[in-house]
Write a structure and sequence with these properties.
The chain is α+β, with helices and mostly antiparallel strands. It has helices at residues 38-45, 50-53, 67-70, 167-175, 190-208, 219-229, 296-304, 306-311, 340-349, 362-370, 388-391, 464-472, 479-487, 489-504; strands spanning 10-13, 16-19, 75-85, 94-104, 109-114, 125-131, 151-155, 158-165, 233-240, 252-258, 263-269, 281-286, 325-328, 331-338, 376-383, 394-400, 406-410, 421-427, 449-452, 455-462. Strand 1 and strand 2 (16-19) form a beta hairpin.
Length: 505
């Protein structure tokens, strides 16, 4: 057997590559020296190997993407419901509550959100916050493979029924090899159906006939009326008229009346160091009934019987009259002023809609509370009695202009050690045999007889400030009061002389 030796043309020396031309061919045959020209060498060095071996396949590097990044913001959404059992109710036995179930693919968490209904009085919104939920006793969490339509999910003792899903959820589940079932409708709540039918019947009756049996006007007129009063608010300035309060501090309020739905909101005007909590809203916006006294029976029937709701009369713009009192939840307020818009609206804009016109002139009412705030009138009086000791007692009757509060102080006797003491606390005092008519400014004059809680007094003189106030504001007093002070003008001179003597002493 003859071995065919192939000559070696590549060797290394000291780590460097050395290329040698073969001198002997196959079979140890001698070859002559083969010299290549420069053009041939350049052709061999520049010859592209792709022409023989093809293009080199470069393998792309694989970029690792974690699951939490790949599935970020990818959520499966299912529409469903759960049935709530109602016990001891004659109107309904169960209730259908709609929910939306969100499944987050990035971390296999589930969140359940209940669709809120207006005025449902139920705790709605987020029912189950986002977290992993176990599906069995081994604490295995729910996976997207466990979710499908027409399927029940037991979550914290409540069975949720999956009825429908969105397009992305259906497409993604089918791409993962899961056969998505057909969607089913969510059942309606029977109690809500009864309410809807009842409202539709009432709307049909109200839209078809009037109380007299005549056909109502078109709805365009009602819509035009609502657009006309939409966004318009009447603003009244009032004071708290409480007969039981013992302090002389006036609490001022601003009453807002929204014409679109006749709701009322009250805000209190606070002053610095007034002793009250600085709460801006005294009464939140709501409808206010004229009669604020309800018993338990009427309160329960309010939610069961429609006739009981129709019997309640609420405050409207016709009840707000300047210069008069208005009762809101057993609180009496005195309306003394309003803003410019309310005044113009009451005079012009509201004629075709409602009747609201100021009765008392605004400058007269507002001046009583703003200009005469903390203004006191002091009168001297003696007690009218059958006892000699009581007839000798002297008193000071103090009348406050801004709120008609009256206080009585007893003066000290000559030679006694005790000083002036309080006889009557400051309050509004009704006239004898009357609980609604109170003493006013024109009831106090020289020679007048007044009775305070079965104690009779005779006014014999007045303070110097009273004379000056009557002289500057004669339009506030009656002719009888002015004549009584004119007849007793000599008392005014004696008051001045007494004051001068006290100054020189």
């Amino acid at each position: 057997m003859i071995l065919a030796l192939v000559p070696r043309t590549l060797s290394f020396k000291n780590g460097h590559r050395i290329i040698r031309l073969p001198r002997f061919g196959i079979g140890q045959t001698y070859k002559q020296d083969i010299q290549l020209a420069e053009d041939e060498r350049e052709l061999l060095t520049d010859f592209p190997p792709e022409l023989i071996y093809g293009k080199v396949r470069v393998q792309e590097s694989y970029k690792f993407v974690p699951a939490m990044v790949f599935y970020d913001k990818k959520i499966l959404r299912f529409d469903g419901y759960f049935k709530q059992i109602i016990y001891e109710s004659p109107l309904e036995s169960y209730r259908i509550r709609r929910v939306i179930i969100y499944y987050y693919l990035e971390d296999d968490t589930i969140a359940i959100y209940e669709t809120p209904y207006k005025n449902s009085a139920l705790n709605q919104g987020m029912r189950v916050r986002r977290h992993r939920i176990s599906k069995n006793d081994q604490n295995e969490p729910y996976n997207w493979r466990d979710l499908n339509l027409r399927q029940n999910l037991l979550i914290y003792g409540i069975i949720y029924r999956l009825c429908d899903c969105d397009a992305f959820t259906r497409e993604w589940l089918e791409s993962e090899g899961i056969e998505v079932k057909c969607s089913e409708p969510i059942p309606t709540d029977p109690y809500m159906l009864k309410l809807i039918e009842k409202d539709e019947i009432e709307k049909q009756r109200s839209n078809s006939y009037d109380l007299d049996g005549s056909v109502k006007k078109e709805q365009n007129s009602n819509e035009a009326r609502r657009k006309m009063i939409d966004g318009k608010v009447l603003k009244f300035y009032a004071v708290f008229d409480d007969q039981r309060q013992q302090c002389n501090m006036i609490r001022k309020f601003i009453i807002f009346l929204y014409l679109i739905d006749n709701t009322i909101e009250i805000r209190e005007i606070h002053h610095r160091n007034n002793g009250y909590d600085p709460l801006p809203i005294y009464l939140h916006r709501q409808v206010v009934p004229r009669d604020s006294s309800y018993n338990i029976r009427s309160f329960v029937n309010l939610f069961l019987d429609k006739c009981e709701q129709d019997k309640i009369c609420y405050l409207t713009s016709k009840d707000f009259i300047l210069g008069q009192q208005i009762t809101i939840f057993n609180r009496t307020f005195f309306l003394y002023d309003c803003d410019t818009f309310t005044r113009t609206f009451c005079q012009f804009d509201c004629k075709p809609l409602i009747s609201l016109a100021p009765i008392v002139p605004l400058h007269v009412v507002s001046s009583k509370f703003e200009q005469n705030e903390n203004h006191l009138l002091c009168y001297e009086a003696i007690m009218e009695s059958s006892y000699d000791n009581d007839r000798c007692r002297q008193f000071n009757i103090v009348y406050q202009l801004d709120n008609d509060l009256i206080s009585v102080y007893e003066k000290s006797f000559d030679g006694r050690e005790y000083s002036t003491r309080k006889f009557f606390e400051r309050s509004r005092i009704p006239k004898p045999d009357s609980h609604s008519i109170y003493y006013g400014l024109n009831d106090f004059y020289i020679g007048a007889r007044v009775e305070f809680y079965k104690h009779r007094f005779i006014i014999i003189n007045a303070d110097r400030s009273v004379w000056k106030f009557i002289e500057d504001n004669q339009q506030l007093f009656s002719s009888d009061v002015i004549d009584s002070f004119r007849k007793n003008a000599h008392l005014y001179k004696t008051n001045i002389q007494n004051q001068n003597n006290l100054l020189f002493e």
